Amino acid sequence: MATLVSFILFPLALLLFASGFFPYKPFIPGLAVFDEGDDGSRPSPIFDRVIFMVVDALRSDFVYGNNSGFQFTQSLIKSGAAVPFTAHASSPTITMPRVKAITTGSVPSFVDVILNFAESDTTSTLAHQDTWLAQLKAKPDGRLVMYGDDTWLKLFPDMFYRHDGTTSFFVSDFTEVDNNVTRHIPEEMGNSDWNAMIMHYLGLDHIGHKAGPRSSPHMIPKQKEMDTVVRIIYGFMEEEAHLSSALLVLCGDHGMNDGGNHGGASPGETSPALTFISPKFQEMGLARSLPKTSSEEFDFYDKVDQSDIAPTLSALLGFPIPLNNLGVIIPQFLPLWKKDSNRLQLLQENAKQMINIVKQTYPSYDFDSTTQSANCDSDSNTDIANLECKWQKAQQLISQPIGDTNLSLAIESSLLDFLRTAQAVMSSTASNYNLTRLYQGIALSGLAFFIALYACAQKGCHGAAAVGYMCLILAGYGALMFASSYVEEEQHFWYWMVSGWIFYLYWKSSNKREFKSGYTSAFVLAALTRVMRRWNQTGQKFAGEPDIANTFFREHPNVMWILILFAYTDLYQRLLPNTSIGDPKNKLLSLLYLPLTSFSFIFKVVFTDADAPELIRNTPFLSFLIRGVRGLSLVFQARVVLIGVLISSMYPIYLRATRKDARSVAKKDIRGTFHSLLTLLLVTQSRATNIPLFAIFRLQQQILSSMTLSTTEITITSLLFQYASFFALGGSNAISSVDLSNAYNGVSGYNVGVQLGWADMVGICHTPSIEHYSLRSQTSIEQAYPAFDHVRGHQSSGGYGSMHYPTNTSIHMDRIFTQVSLQYGVDAGSARYR
């Protein structure tokens, strides 16, 4: 009974804790409007439309570094036509919360981490929140278009007049996912019916996830491709009259670490590039940006917060600042308005909008007084009291008649100081955790733990030393949670705990007669565990460092394939005895596993050839296999393996039902067959570089099975090795370490519509392949789209080009659209008009 109670209390404690950690965050509803007192004396907008180009995971050094592929963009920075910044993206550094921060100017919630992976989620919509997209659409004849990551479509339903979204989780696709965005540029650059165009490119992020930012041979070509897109758009801005007052914003939603992942708070993940581009910056004499001489690796130019994009666009395009904004107008753009009164008005509007949020959060403080409090000079003031003093100081300066430039500069400085302080204070309180529920959840989980201990004592937990070691694990793991750096590097804790447990098993065997065999088993187990630890470098600090999977195997792919072949051979050998239940005739049926395991191996070879062709080089035998199945799509091959595993799992159940005289034997064989088939399924869904790990797991299992372990010891062993294997396979506490490269095996496309769902059921053999996502087929924009062949460079203006199109451009683009639609398995009508 006590065990049942503890099992019920643990999930309840988790739910209670989660409700406090992921609270509902209130927001101010409605759209912001200008004060009624504004009578046309407002500062004139600098631009009338914006082209917002997001390159997923665009780390600052990808654009500004010496080895960058953005040579044209760097030439614009040097000429003064582009204003660069290093943006700060706060954690969690994944797409959905970062898009929320960019568009609302607010601080996202950690619950968005979960919603980011819910492909069909609509609960995180921003349809009823104030954003700069909603403000632009509210303008007379306001229309928005969007192409790229369909996260924007989930966040902003019914917002876009034209759109064409692509799923962000086909991480093996580096090419089509970006071509599907670029193909819309010629048509949209010729249209004048929109005032905002959103483009979200995913290919660079996918390359990072697959091979990391430094080791992949495709990273620089992809950067050059994105730079070519900037060059194309800039050429249109120079030549098309309706784009003469357009602003191009090139930015990343987040960065990536040296392992190619993101989601955490490392410098690489939180330092995306942000560049504002327009020929008008040169014409209006805006000061050129100079690189910073900083010791920080990703700190190239002035650093701004990503939430500053929202109020800056509000000022540059002339619409009210979103109500929930916590950003600050980037001061480098203030000189675009020559009058002091215009600059002050923009800053005051930003400050008034910010003070409304502060008042709602801290109603007990006096932000209406223009007289500074007597204790403003005290060093013991809290952050909010200090903010109150800065607001009062700014109001005092504003109340004085403006008679000279020095006073205007003093007001500007005071307002910016207040805004930056308010941004820091409000950002720190934006999470608004429900501490009461957090404490209740912790207390309830503690109660469940002690009840579980009581149940264990009642039933008799054998082995005081084993129980003591388990208590040591719990105490150490609990202490681990109080330091973020330990959480980020949690894998080391489990590796050391496994090593300690192996020493315990050796100590246990030394007290028994089987000391010699126990010593050998413990030594081999420790050696295998050491190899397992070195397989994938994970965590934050050592991500991207040399390891077996990503370094050794890339230099010695033949060794990897020998080990993979050994793992598949072992799997087949394990399946054989599990189907021969006493009857020699059943051994013939066991031969069915030979084509299943063989086809699974061939599928993994072909998939790796499409996904990471550098691992196939100099292997003639594998090339022969690839040529042998060239006519079969990857989707078909994956489905054959998956269906084969399903059918094979039904066979032992049938045997047990029909062989009543051998049920005891059949029961054992069913467990063995299911375990082997599950391993085959997991191998099929794993990266090729991780498949040899399953052979190591198999050897560890055999060694542990040979030992005489109590129920308590088996439980502790399972717990320790399941955590250690998770990290050995490349997992970490960063949500970004979830490996999606094999998540779509056997899936031809993604669409929640009934039409595609029905089409997927029609036939296994007529489904389009995703093998065209191979990196080897990656081409430049000019190669992919002949309509872009007529790019002319202007030598006198730094090499940026303009575009000229042949008369059949629309026909050509329609042909490309049809081709991409067939490859993705989506309806050509997905680019809907609203």
Uncertain regions: pLDDT < 50 for 5+ in a row?
A: 118-123, 751-834
Q: Please report the distance between the alpha carbons of the first and last residues.
A: 59 Å
Number of domains: 3
Molecular shape: globular
Give the biggest beta sheet. 8 strands, mixed
Q: Strands of the biggest beta sheet: in what spatial order?
A: 4-3-5-1-6-7-2-8
SS summary, helix count = 33
Mean pLDDT: 79
DSSP helix fraction? 40-55%
Structural class by sheet pairing and helices: alpha/beta
User: What is the gyration radius calculated from CA atoms?
Assistant: 31 Å
Number of strands: 10
Please indicate the percent range of residues in DSSP E strands (runs of 2 or more).
5-15%
Please tell me about this protein's structure:
This protein has about 850 residues and is an alpha/beta fold. The chain has 3 domains: about 45-335, Alkaline Phosphatase, subunit A, CATH 3.40.720.10; about 340-430, no CATH class; about 480-780 and about 810-820, no CATH class. It has 33 helices and 10 strands. The strands form 2 sheets. The protein has an 8-stranded mixed β-sheet with strand order 4-3-5-1-6-7-2-8, with helices on both faces. A two-stranded antiparallel sheet has the order 9-10. The longest helix is centred in the middle third of the chain and has 25 residues, at about 405-430. It is globular. The model is unreliable at about 120-125 and about 750-834 (pLDDT under 50). Keywords: Endoplasmic reticulum, Glycoprotein, GPI-anchor biosynthesis, Membrane, Signal, Transferase, Transmembrane, Transmembrane helix. InterPro entries: Alkaline_phosphatase_core_sf (IPR017850), Phosphodiest/P_Trfase (IPR002591), PIG-G_N (IPR037674), PIGG/GPI7 (IPR039527), PIGG/GPI7_C (IPR045687). Pfam families: Phosphodiest, PIGO_PIGG.
